[in-house]
């Protein structure tokens, strides 16, 4: 390595070699001070630049954006969950109110029809009783007339008796036929109304059955969709746990990089220390010989300057190693302090999500059971209506 050349002519004001050496020492001290100041400034600027590069790096940017998106996604999910819960509650309340109104209307129609049937039955009974009393009155009258005519003439007794008997039989037959015809007409008049009412009731039952089946199927589909959403959320939670393992790998790589930097700094320090020792050994053997030569002062100054430069570079490497060790120690301490809190937060999040998912799963299972129970009750009501219709028909 070539040494820097310096002028060999001394200034005019330093004709004395001792004064010139003092002036040289002062110059070297000033240069040493300037170099130390510049080294500290450059080291501080290097550290600031490194921190600035790290803080303005894409990794920090993407991590901030990722945290922001995670928080926003969490809030959106919470809002959507509350909104869906309110919608489901409103929908269920409306369906329950509508079902209760339909049941009340159906009970009212059933009571009205029963009252109408009882009224018609009473009217028919009254008509039959009046017809029976009328026939009995006519028979009694005919019997009295026949007895009176029988007392008038014994000769005509048998004839009158026979005539009255035949007339009685004819009147009875005619009356019976009249009553049967009236009963038949009354039955024929009531049968179309009864048949129409039965058809309307069957049609209403079919419509109610179709409506209940459709509503229960829609509700069951919605519950199954929510169950699939819960399974999807559980899958996303597992994926998030896997993604959380990646920063741990990144921290391992950072520690490995810091270790490599430490090894490189130690290697550079060893090389500089070896060069300094070689230079010191050369100076010890050749200092007196170089002083006797014409350019001895310049060589001594060059060697001294090289020694100072190597010493400064060695000091810079030591400071850099100390900074790296301090950074590693601070980073390790920060990670070590944050690890229990991070583990605690992770367990709390997992426990909270498990509770939420378990509660939601229980709600879905309860709704599915209620849906099945509603289907069974609907089927039971239809069977009761069918049984009642068959009983009224019979």
The quaternary state of the protein chains shown equals single chain
- Work out the radius of gyration: 58 Å
Query: What's the tally of helices?
Result: 4
Describe the main β-sheet briefly: none
User: Could you say how many structural domains there are in total?
Assistant: 1
Unreliable runs? 1-6
In whole angstroms, the N-to-C terminal distance is: 125 Å
Shape: rod-shaped
How large is the share of residues in beta strands? under 5%
Please identify the structural class as seen in this structure. Answer: mainly alpha
Helix content estimate: over 70%
Average pLDDT taken over every residue: 68
The strand count comes to 0
Order of helices and strands: HHHH
Q: How would you portray this structure in words?
A:
The longest helix has 138 residues, at 155-292. Residues 1-6 have low confidence and may be disordered. The protein has one domain (59-393). 1% of the residues are buried. It is rod-shaped. The protein is built from 4 helices and no strands. With 394 residues, the protein is mainly α. Helix 1 (17-55) runs parallel beside helix 4 (296-393).
């Amino acid at each position: 390595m070539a040494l820097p050349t310096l002028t060999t002519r001394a200034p005019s004001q330093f004709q004395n070699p001792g004064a010139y050496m003092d002036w040289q020492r002062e110059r070297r001290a000033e240069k040493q001070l300037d170099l130390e100041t510049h080294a500290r400034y450059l080291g501080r600027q290097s550290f600031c630049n490194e921190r600035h590069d790290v803080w303005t790096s894409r990794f920090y940017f993407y991590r901030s954006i990722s945290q922001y998106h995670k928080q926003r996604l969490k809030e959106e999910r919470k809002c959507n969950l509350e909104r869906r819960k309110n919608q489901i509650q409103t929908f269920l309340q409306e369906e329950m109110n509508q079902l209760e109104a339909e049941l009340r209307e159906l009970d009212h129609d059933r009571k009205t029809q029963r009252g109408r049937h009882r009224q018609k039955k009473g009217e028919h009974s009254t008509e039959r009783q009046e017809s029976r009393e009328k026939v009995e009155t006519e028979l009694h009258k005919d019997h009295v007339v026949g007895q009176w005519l029988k007392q008038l003439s014994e000769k005509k007794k048998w004839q009158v008796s026979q005539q009255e008997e035949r007339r009685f039989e004819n009147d009875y037959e005619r009356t019976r036929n009249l009553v049967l015809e009236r009963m038949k007409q009354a039955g024929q008049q009531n049968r179309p109304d009864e048949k129409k009412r039965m058809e309307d009731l069957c049609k209403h039952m079919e419509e109610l059955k179709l409506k209940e089946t459709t509503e229960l199927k829609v509700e069951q589909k919605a519950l199954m969709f929510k169950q699939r959403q819960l399974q999807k959320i559980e899958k996303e939670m597992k994926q998030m746990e896997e993604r959380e393992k990646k920063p741990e790998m990144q921290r391992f790589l950072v520690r490995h990089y810091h270790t490599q930097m430490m090894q490189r700094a130690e290697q550079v320090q060893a090389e500089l220390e070896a060069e300094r020792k070689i230079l010191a050994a050369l100076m010890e053997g050749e200092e007196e010989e170089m002083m006797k030569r014409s350019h001895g002062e310049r060589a001594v100054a060059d060697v001294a300057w090289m020694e100072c430069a190597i010493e400064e570079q060695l000091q810079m490497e030591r400071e850099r190693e100390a900074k790296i060790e301090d950074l590693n120690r601070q980073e390790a301490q920060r990670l070590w302090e944050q690890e229990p809190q991070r583990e605690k937060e992770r367990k709390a999040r997992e426990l909270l999500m498990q509770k939420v998912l378990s509660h939601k799963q229980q709600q879905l299972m309860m709704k599915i059971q209620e849906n099945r129970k509603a289907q069974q009750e609907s089927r039971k009501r239809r069977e009761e209506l069918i049984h009642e219709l068959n009983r009224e028909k019979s």
